[in-house]
Amino acid sequence: MSNHTAVEILLSRLFKCAGTVSTTYYNTRVVKTDENASNIELLRQIRLLSPDIRDTFQLRSSFRQFLNTALSTERLFAIGANVGGYFARLEKLVAEHSLAIQDGRDVAAEQYEMEIREAISDIADSIDDELTILHAMVATKFAAVSTIAEKRRQNLHYQDRTSKLVNLLENFHFADFSDQLSGNEDLALSFHALLEDRIPTFREKLKAVLQQLQQYLFEFRKIEDQARLVRSFALHLNRNPDWTPKNWDETATPPEWVGLAAPMELANHPDVAQPDSEDVLREIAANIPASADMRIERRPAGQLVEETTETVVVVAQSPLKKAVRAFFMEAAESPEWISARRWWIEHPSMTSSIGEDVWLLRLVSEDERERRTGSWSFRRVEHVHSVFDGNVLIHDVLAARKGL
Amino acid sequence: MLDQVVPKLLEGEFICEATAPSLFRALADEALRSEVDAFLGKIKRRLTITPNGQAYYASWVKVGKEQRAEAKRVMVSIKQTIRPVIQFIELCMDSLKTDVAPSPGDRIDYPAILKSVTENPHLLEKLREFATLGKEFAANEASSNAMLGKVFQQLEKAGYIVFAYPEQEAWRFTGKLDYYYQVITFLMENEGIQQQDEKDDDPETGRLF
User: Fold this and answer.
1) Which residues make beta-bridge pairs with B170?
2) What are phi and psi of B27, to 5 degrees?
3) Interface of A with B (CB under 8 A)
4) What single-letter DSSP state applies at residue B55?
5) How far does the CA of residue B197 sit from the closest CA of chain A (Å)?
6) What's residue B207's pLDDT?
7) Does residue B202 contact residue B96 with C-beta atoms inside 8 Å?
8) Strand order through the sheet with A30-31
9) Is residue B208's pLDDT more than 80?
10) What is the DSSP string of A276-344?
11) What percent of chain B has pLDDT over 90?
C-alpha cells in the first residue's frame, strides 16, 4: 500500500502535466495533439480540464481562478469573491452543527466542525484575495486598459463590488455566530482569530480602497479634461503654425507661472581653516589621482647616464656673401668710386673661389635688393649688346659712399 | 532636509515624485514647507506648488520691476518649448494608442514608442517634424532611433522627462508637466483658443478624422 496521500498523488500528476497546464493557462486553451493527448486525458480525469470547441480544451474555472489568485494575474474584470455565499454557507453549517449536537450525532457534528473551520478560512482568504486584487487595480490605475472610458467603467465596477463587500461586513451579525460557536473552544478560537478580530481591519482597508476609487473617478474626469486640453491645443498649433503666445510677462499682473524664479548657479567651497573638516579634506586629497600631464622621467636604477652637452651647430658663412659684405662696407665709406673688378683682384684671399662673372652678377643683385636701405651709391659700366637686342654687357660695377 | 530642498529649488529644479521622491514626500509636511518658504522669502522667492500638487518649485514673491527681465526669460523659454512639448505628448499618446494625456510620474517606454514610430509612417512623419522646431531637435542621422533619441534628450534637458529605468530604457514624466498644463490651460482661456468638443469613447474613431 502506498504511503502517499491523495493530495500528494494529485500534485505529482499535476507536476507531470505542468507544461500542458501552463500552455493552456497562458493561451486560454490548448489543442489536442499526439504529444499532449495523454496529459490532457489525465487532467480531464482529475477534473482540471474541460472541453472547449474544435478539439481544444481549457482549464476549469475553479483551477484558473486559483492560478489567477496565486500568480496575482492582472485581469480586466477579476472574478469577485462570493463572500456573501460563503457567509450563507457558514450560517447553514453552524445551524446544522447545533442540530447534530442536540440530536447526539457526534460523527456528523465532527464533520460539521471541520467544514465550519474551512468556511471560516474561506471567508478570511476570500476577503484577503479581494483586497489584493483591489490594491493591484488601484495601484496601477487600471493599467490593463488604455482608454479613459474603459478605465471609468472598470472603476465603477470595482467601486460597486467594494461597497457591497463593505456593507456586508458592516451589517452581518457576527455576534450570533460567536454565541453559537462558544460551546466549542477550537471553533470559537478559529472564528475569533481568523475572522472576527480581522473584520475591522478588512473593513477599514476596503473603505480606504473605496475612497481611492471615488477619488479616481474624479481624477479620470480631470484626465479626460486634460486629454481634451492637449488635443485642442495641439490642433490649434497645427492650424496656426505662426502662432506664439502673447507676452504675458508684460501685463500689469502677470500670471503665476511667469513668476518662476531664475535658476541660480550654486557652488560650495570648504573652509580649509575649519579643523572639523580636516579629516574629510585629507581623505579627499589622498584620493585625488596625480595629474596625467605630469611626467617624471627617472634614470633606470643601477645605470649611469652620461649627460650630453647641447650640440651647437655653427653655420659657416659663404665666402661670396662674406666678400660682398666687405666690398659694400668699404664702398659705403669711400669718397671715391671703387671698381668691383679691381677689388676682386686686390682681395684674392676672399675672392679666390669666386668667378669674376659670378662676382659682378652677385654685386648687381645685392644692389637691386638692398638699394633702398643700403648706404652706398652704385654704378654699372655697361653697353648695349649689338646683336641681342634688349640685353646689356656689364664690364664693371663701381660703388662709393651714398650721395656721391 | 532643508539643506537638500533649498539648493534644488534655487537651482531652478522642480521637485516631484519622479526627480526627487524623498524630498517630494518630505515636502508633504507643512512644517517643512513653511520652513522652506521662510528661507526663500529672505531672497524674494517663495515655495510654489503646481495646480495638481505634482511638483514644488521656487517662484518670485512678486514680479516687480527687478524681476521683469527674469519674467521675460521665462516667457521666451515657454515660447520655445510650447510646441515641442505638445508634439511630444501627442507622439506618446498616438504611439501607445491611448486617449489618456500623460500625467507626472507616468512611464514612457522608449522601445515601445520607437517600434510604433518605425511601423507607422504617420508617426514617423510626426517625428520628422521635430527637426523643423529648432536645430536642437535635428539629429545627425535620419534613422528613427537617432531622431527619437534626440527628442528625448531635448525633453530631458528641458526637465519634462527623466531617465528613470535605464535597464528597460524607460523614462518618466516629471512634475514639470503639471506646470506645462497650467500654462496651456491659461493660454487656452486667455487667448481665445477654442476647446474641442467631447469625443467619442472610442479613440480609433477619433483618429479617423
Assistant:
1) B109, B165
2) -75, -5
3) 146-149, 151, 222-223, 226-237, 244-249, 254-266
4) E
5) 8
6) 40
7) no
8) A30-31, A56-59, A49-51
9) no
10) GGHHHHHHHHHHSPPPTT-----PPTT---PPPPPP-PPPPPPHHHHHHHHHHHHHHH-SS-EEHHHHH
11) 61
Q: What residue type is A136 in one-letter code?
A: A
Strand partners, A401: A376
C-alpha cell at B45: 522667492
Q: How many residues does chain B have?
A: 209
Which triple of cell numbers denotes residue B11?
537651482
What lies within 8 Å, CB to CB, of A90 at 6+ separation is A116, A119, A120, A123, A177
Which contiguous run of DSSP H or E holds residue A89? helix A83-103
> Which of A70-74, B56-60, B107-111 is predicted with the least confidence, judged by mean pLDDT?
A70-74
pLDDT at B20: 92
Q: Quick one: cell of A189? A: 478560537
Residue of A243, A257, A266 to mutate when probing chain B, most B C-beta within 10 A:
A257
Quick one: cell of A404? 656721391
* Angstrom distances, CA of residue B132 to CA of A240, A296, B49, B91, B139: 15, 54, 33, 15, 11
* Torsion of Cα atoms, B88 then B91 then B96 then B100, to 10°: 70
Q: What is the pLDDT of residue A204?
A: 83
Looking at residue A175, its pLDDT comes to 61
> A35: buried, middle or exposed (CB in 10 Å: 19+, 13-18, 0-12)?
exposed
Q: Is the pLDDT of residue B159 over 90?
A: yes
Q: Which residues of A touch B74 (CB under 8 A)?
A: 249, 257-260
Is the pLDDT at B209 greater than 50? The verdict is no
Output the CA angle B55-B60-B66, nearest 5 degrees: 155
| Distance of alpha carbon B21 from alpha carbon A355, whole angstroms | 95
Residue A52 has a CB neighbour count (10 Å cut-off) of: 15
What residue type is A234 in one-letter code? A
H or E stretch at B9: helix B2-10
pLDDT band at B201 (very low <50, low <70, confident <90, very high): very low
Strand partners, A400: A377
Residue with cell 481549457: A58
Q: What does each C-alpha distance from B58 to A258, B1, B9, B37, B209 come to in angstroms?
A: 11, 16, 5, 9, 42
pLDDT tens digits for range B12-31: 999 998 999 999 999 999 99
**Least CA distance to B57: which residue of chain A?**
A260
**Pair A353, A318: CB distance under 8 Å:** no
Per-residue pLDDT band for B203 (boundaries 50, 70, 90) equals: very low
What are the strands of the beta sheet with B55-60, ordered from one edge? B15-16, B55-60, B45-49
Mean pLDDT by groups of 10 residues along chain A of 404 residues: 79 89 86 88 86 80 78 56 76 85 85 84 81 77 70 80 79 70 78 79 82 78 82 91 89 88 84 82 83 66 70 78 91 90 88 87 89 85 82 89 81
CA distance A265 to chain B (A): 6
Q: What separation in angstroms does the CA of A234 have from each of A227, B47, B89?
A: 11, 31, 9
